[in-house]
Amino acid sequence: MLTRLTAVLLTTATLSLRAQQTPQQLADAELPSLLTIYKDLHTHPELSTFEQRSSGIVAKELKDAGCDVTEHVGKYDQPGATGYGVVGVMKNGDGPVVLVRTDMDALPVHEETGAPYASNVITKNREGKDVPVMHACGHDVHMSCLIGTARALSKLKDKWHGTILFIGQPAEETITGAKAMMNDGLYTRWPKPNYALALHDDSDIETGKIAVIEGYSHAASDSIDVTVKGAGGHGAYPHRTHDPIVLSAQIINAWQTITSREKNPLDPAVVTVGSIHGGTKHNIIPDEVKMQLTVRTYKPEVRQAILTELDQIAKGCAVAAGFPSNLMPEVHPHEDEHTAPTYNNPELVRREAAAMKAVLGNDNVVDKQPMMVSEDFCEYSLPDHSIPAFMFLVGAVSPQKIADSKKPDAAPLPTLHSSKFLPVADTTIRTGVVAMTSCVLDLLKR
Ligand SMILES: [Zn+2]
Ligand SMILES: [Zn+2]
Description:
Layout: H1 2-19, H2 23-43, H3 52-64, E1 68-73, E2 85-92, E3 97-103, E4 122-124, E5 130-132, H4 139-154, E6 162-169, H5 177-183, H6 186-189, E7 195-206, E8 210-212, E9 215-218, E10 220-229, E11 233-234, H7 244-262, E12 269-278, E13 284-285, E14 288-297, H8 300-320, E15 330-333, E16 342-344, H9 346-360, E17 365-367, E18 389-397, H10 399-405, H11 425-443
Parallel strand pairs: 3-6, 3-7, 7-18, 8-17
Antiparallel strand pairs: 1-2, 2-6, 4-5, 8-18, 9-16, 10-14, 10-15, 11-13, 12-14
Helix pairs in contact: 2-4, 2-11, 3-4, 4-11, 7-8, 9-11
The protein binds zinc ion (2 copies).
């Protein structure tokens, strides 16, 4: 009798244990702990290339989930920058290799979310200047999702076989971290993946939903420094100077015709002047003006044409303004701050969208248009896209806020990088963990 009772109890225990073995239930079980980690990461953001504490947390948690962890992966061109990349290998017999990446860095933004766990951090940037720091892009959500996914997959080893490379990537915001990890032998010291996956939170989409983009999803990005030279003098004697401020104004206006008149309207592109500095006082015409631009494109030929036109137009305006040849503007694209567009392998997107729909429901996996923001996740698929890669988006906004933002005269929703952007942490992290775990299970299923 006792034996039979023990057998019944044991069977019940085994069944309830098995009942735990779905990504949703594992995510629910881990959520309180993941929220604690998330809030801690959110309160303690770190700038690009300074991710010491965050990478330590990712490394510790991956170790605790059973990964073989290597820290300090990453070699930058920048002198003095430390590589805080983390690689965690979870091996479970023979089979394909799947890379799962989180980024770890935060932004020089003063947080204004009013969250009880908001960041008050002020730190010195690489130039030695004091700046506020905030996880305004949700990389704290991504780290929490990666940890949750590693925990879930460590408990689901009877359902998959192969190797998972969990990547904690530094310096995404400066688009230098993925390259630094590749330069440090990511694909030679560790097995080269058959697939690369990542997620990013989304500031337009309802929490609980996933959005997918087939093909190109994020634009190529270029940073360009411009120096408009002049010959300064007294503000009351403009005829005795070459005024770089008036010339800069003309150049900025003329550049607007690049996207509106020069290129094919069907090719997306953005030219934004994000910074302009010149002069010190009301009555002095300065010797130069400095500008910083970002250029976003998809096609390499469009990118090249825009870079050429920026230079031609700047010089053309200077000639038209009668500037001598030794005072021509200098247009300098930063080769080390260029990133290629991100390409989501269409076959992989369709396969994983189906896997996510099976778990989250058809209505919770939606399509989204490509974006002009950029990512260095493209590095993991290699320039020829020979490693199929897929970055999906995890909605992070409460449905109520989305509804409110559509009312007349309502303030627009805060975007990523806004001081007011605060993801709905619990449902967003839960959905991210369930979605990523389901994708990996699908790619490595027994
Ligand atoms: Zn960002
Ligand atoms: Zn980001």
